[in-house]
Design goal:
Aldehyde Dehydrogenase, Chain A, domain 1; alpha/beta; Aldehyde Dehydrogenase, Chain A, domain 2; about 40% helix; five-stranded parallel sheet
C-alpha cells in the first residue's frame, strides 16, 4: 500500500517529454510539435507531449497493419498471447505507485481512489484477458448429415482506440487488453490532458514482450489525431469512450471512410432511486454521495441524479448535505483528500456554467456551485447539491461530468421509474430497497446497461459495462468485450 512519504517523493520526480510510440520506437511528432501538460493540482507546467498530426496517425496505422498481416501477434497461439498479457499485468503492479502518482499529477483524481481504479484495475484487466485468451471455443452448427458447419472467431485487424481523461489507464486496459487477446493490433489516442500514464503503460507493454507494431500510441488533439484515426481507411474497428458529440462525429467518419465498426461509450445521467424502506439510510446516503462526488463527479457511471421517496426526502437530503460538507477537498496527492481536482480549466468553467444554468432553471442550490481553493492555482469545485430539480431542466437532462447532484422527490414506484427513464441516456442506475420483489421489478424496468441494487459502483471485469440510448453501444469488460474485436467466419463443408 502506498504511503504519504512515498507519494511526496514521487510527486517531485521529473517527467520526461512524452513521445509517440510507433512500431516499437519512441518518436517525436513528424513536425516536432509539442503540447504543454498543465497539472490541475496547481496549474503548473509538468512537461510536454508530442502534438501528433495525421501523418503520425498514418505511420502508426501502417505499423499496426504490417504487424497484423505478418502474424507476429495474430498468429501466435492464444496461450502464448495470454502469457504476454499476464506479464504486462505483473509489470503494471510493480510500477503501480509511479503510475498512480503520475496519473494524478496529470488529471487530478484523488490518490486514494486512483491507486485502485487506475494501475491496479488495469493490471487486473490485463490478467483477466491473458487468462481468457485460450478459453474461447469455436462452434459446430447443428447441420444435416453430410455437411459440417464451423464458426470461427477471427481477429478484425487494426483497432483504433480513443480514451478519455478521467480514468485513462483503466479504460485503456478495458479496450486494449480485449483487442490484443483477440489477436488484433492497436493504435491508441489518449486524451491530450491525460496522456502521461498511458505513455508509460505502452512502454511497459513492450518491456513485457509485446512485439513492435502491435500497440502504437499517438498523442495530440482530437482534431489532429482523433479525426484522422476515425477517418482512416485502414482501421477496421474504432472503440471510443467520451462525449456524445464526439461519438456522433466518429460515426460520421466511419460512414465517410471504410464503414469501420464503431463502438461508443458516451456517458450518462444515471439516477439512484432511494425508497423509504431502504435499510440503514445513513449508509445509503454515504453510498449515494460517493456515487457522485468521488473523482469530483468525473465518472461515466456517476449517479448524478438522486430520486428520493417523498416521506424521507427532506431528512435524506440533510444527510447528503452533511456528508458532502465534511468531504475534504484539495490536494489530490494527499491521502486524506476525498475530493480532488477537475481535470482542466476548460472543464471546470463548463461545470460552473452548468451550475449557473441550473439556478436559472429553478433548481434549489443547497451546497457548492462555485470554484474552490482558488489560491492553489488549481481547478477545484466542491461537492454541489441541487434539490427539487425540474425534470425538463438541463441539470436533469444533460451530463455535466462534475461533482453536481440533482435531487428529486417522488411518491410512487411508477413515478420513480418514469423519472429515472426520462432522459436520452441509459448507462447505469441504482435502487435502494429491502423489498426483493420491488428490486427485481426495478431492475427489469429501468432503462440502463447496469443496475445496482443496494450499492453503487464496484462492478468488476467479470461483468459487461455498456449502455443503451445515447449512452452508446457495445460493451467493455467480461468475455462479451471480445465480440467487438472479432469477426465470425463460417466454414460450410460438404462431407
Amino acid at each position: 500500500m502506498i504511503n504519504q512519504s512515498e507519494i511526496n517523493n514521487l510527486r517531485q520526480a521529473s517527467i520526461p517529454v512524452g513521445q509517440n510510440m510507433i512500431d516499437g520506437k519512441k518518436v517525436d511528432a513528424s513536425d516536432g510539435a509539442k503540447m504543454d501538460v498543465i497539472s490541475p493540482i496547481d496549474g503548473t507546467f509538468l512537461t510536454e507531449i508530442a502534438a501528433g498530426r495525421s501523418v503520425d496517425v498514418d505511420k502508426a496505422v501502417q505499423a499496426a497493419r504490417i504487424a497484423f498481416e505478418d502474424g507476429r501477434w495474430s498468429s501466435l497461439a492464444p496461450a502464448a498471447r495470454g502469457k504476454v498479457l499476464q506479464r504486462i499485468a505483473e509489470k503494471i503492479v510493480k510500477d503501480a505507485h509511479w503510475l498512480a502518482v503520475l496519473g494524478v499529477r496529470d488529471n487530478g483524481t484523488e490518490i486514494s481512489m486512483a491507486i485502485k481504479a487506475e494501475p491496479l484495475s488495469a493490471a487486473g484487466t490485463f490478467r483477466y484477458y491473458g487468462e481468457l485468451c485460450d478459453k474461447q471455443y469455436g462452434e459446430i452448427a447443428p447441420t444435416a448429415p453430410g455437411t459440417l458447419g464451423l464458426v470461427h472467431h477471427t481477429p478484425v485487424g487494426v483497432v483504433g482506440v480513443i480514451v478519455p481523461w478521467n480514468f485513462p489507464l483503466m479504460i485503456s486496459a478495458w479496450k486494449i487488453a480485449a483487442a490484443l487477446a483477440a489477436g488484433n493490433t492497436v493504435v491508441l489516442k489518449p486524451a491530450e490532458v491525460a496522456s502521461l500514464s498511458i505513455l508509460r503503460l505502452v512502454e511497459i507493454c513492450h518491456e513485457a514482450g509485446l512485439p513492435d507494431g502491435v500497440l502504437n500510441v499517438v498523442t495530440g488533439t482530437g482534431l489532429d489525431v482523433g479525426a484522422p484515426l476515425g477517418q482512416h481507411m485502414d482501421v477496421d474497428v474504432l472503440a471510443f469512450t467520451g462525449s456524445g458529440p464526439v461519438g456522433r462525429q466518429l460515426m460520421m467518419y466511419a460512414a465517410q471512410s471504410n464503414l469501420k465498426r464503431v463502438y461508443l461509450e458516451l456517458g450518462g445521467k444515471s439516477a439512484s432511486v432511494v425508497f423509504a424502506d431502504a435499510d440503514n439510510l445513513d449508509l445509503v446516503a454515504k453510498v449515494a454521495a460517493g456515487a457522485i462526488f468521488r473523482n469530483s463527479g468525473q465518472v461515466c457511471v456517476a449517479s448524478s441524479r438522486l430520486l428520493v421517496e417523498n416521506s424521507i426526502h427532506k431528512d435524506f437530503v440533510e444527510k447528503i448535505l452533511n456528508i458532502a460538507g465534511e468531504m475534504k477537498l484539495g490536494d489530490p496527492l494527499d491521502l486524506s483528500t476525498n475530493a480532488g481536482a477537475i481535470a482542466s480549466q476548460t472543464q471546470m468553467n463548463k461545470i460552473l456554467q452548468d451550475c449557473d444554468r441550473a439556478v436559472a432553471d429553478g433548481a434549489e442550490l443547497k451546497l457548492g456551485g462555485a470554484q474552490r481553493a482558488v489560491e492553489t492555482g488549481g481547478f477545484y469545485i466542491g461537492p454541489t447539491v441541487f434539490d427539487n430539480a425540474p425534470q425538463d431542466s438541463s441539470l436533469v437532462q444533460k451530463e455535466i461530468f462534475g461533482p453536481v447532484l440533482a435531487v428529486q422527490p417522488f411518491d410512487t414506484e411508477e413515478e420513480a421509474i418514469k423519472l429515472s427513464n426520462d432522459t436520452d441516456y441509459g448507462l447505469a442506475a441504482g435502487v435502494f430497497t429491502q423489498n426483493i420483489n420491488r428490486a427485481h421489478r426495478m431492475v427489469e424496468r429501468l432503462r440502463a446497461g447496469v443496475v445496482h441494487v443496494n450499492t453503487y459502483g464496484g462492478a468488476d471485469v467479470t461483468v459487461p459495462l455498456g449502455g443503451v440510448g445515447q449512452s452508446g453501444n457495445g460493451h467493455d469488460k467480461s468475455p462479451h468485450a471480445l465480440n467487438k474485436f472479432q469477426n465470425l467466419k463460417t466454414a460450410w463443408i460438404q462431407l
